[in-house]
Amino acid sequence: MTNHQTYYVPEQSKWPIVATIGLFLTLFGGGSVMVNGSQGESTGGSWFIFALGCLVMAYMLFGWFGSVVRESRAGLYSAQMDRSFRWGMSWFIFSEVMFFSAFFGALFYARMFAVPWLGGEGDKGSSAILWEGFQAAWPLIHNPDPQAYPAPEGIIGPWGLPLVNTILLVTSSFTITVAHHALKADNRKKVTIWLGITILLALTFLVFQAEEYVHAYQDLSLTLQSGIYGSTFFMLTGFHGVHVILGTVMLIVMFLRIRRGHFTADNHFGFEAASWYWHFVDVVWLALFIFVYVL
Questions:
Q1: Which of 94, 187, 243, 292 has the fewest CB neighbours in a 10 Å radius?
Q2: Class of domain 81-294
Q3: Among candidates 149, 119, 151, which has minimal Cα distance to 135?
Q4: Euclidean distance between the first and final Cα of the chain, in Å?
Q5: Domain ranges of the chain
């Protein structure tokens, strides 16, 4: 058990505690922004805490993954460590699946139960007495309490930018697969080209997503404060956008590592993990496109 080829024990590291601090600041700041913003209070301090948390998380990710890369390049990792990394990434993606399932569940509950009950339908139709005359419909752009939650003037149609973004992400899933097969064939030039195309598609998606948000806020008055439709819309698409940003950063790091000669045809789990994550992001968007935009 003293040979690292049998079992590898990493050296002591400060990164777990740094990650804990960063996560706390980020989540506390983000939650404060939403709570204070919904109550009409100042969010300046909350945004500062959130930004500080993001900086700490960036520092942690850069340092921790840098240590992992150096250890891997030094040949310290064995087959046992490779299995550990694969299981770790698998459980991480599973946790992300559960994360988005919670928000899709909230959308389903509001759309199929809560809103119809307020309109007088179902076993709990007596809830209709809360707002007499309320007509249940989805997307909910006529809120039961428009003074508390101003109704949006419209919604984002699925056949404009959302459709374009769907095509972009589906195409990027194809291009990252081509790049992966090229890496297995040890064709670095082909990997660089197709991975570069994937990154360009990802950045284009983010630009169009930002344009959609500007249109929603400025032209449609569709905001987080627009009732249950606005909140579920922005929570789902917003968190997905954050995951696209994270996935794009992963792809850029993989691109730089490929350019520096990292990875081999048989040893490239870092690239594999990034591609797994990107495929997950693509699948989540397809679900978003269907259940948020189309249906």
A1: 94
A2: mainly alpha
A3: 119
A4: 57
A5: 1-77, 81-294
Q: Please give the full DSSP string across 167-180, using - where no structure is assigned.
A: HHHHHHHHHHHHHH
Half-sphere exposure of 104 (CA within 13 A, CB side): 16
For the stretch 25-58, pLDDT in tens is 999 998 888 787 766 677 788 889 999 999 999 9
What pLDDT is recorded for position 7? 63
Distances (CA, A) of 229 to 139, 179, 287: 6, 38, 17
Burial 204-239 (b: 16+ CB within 10 A, else e): ebeebbeebbeebeeebbbbbbbbbbbbbbbbbbeb
40 Rama sector, left if φ>0, alpha if ψ -120 to 50, beta otherwise: left
Backbone angles phi, psi at 221, to 5 degrees: 55, 30
Report how far residue 245's alpha carbon sits from residue 207's, in angstroms, rounded to the nearest whole number.
11
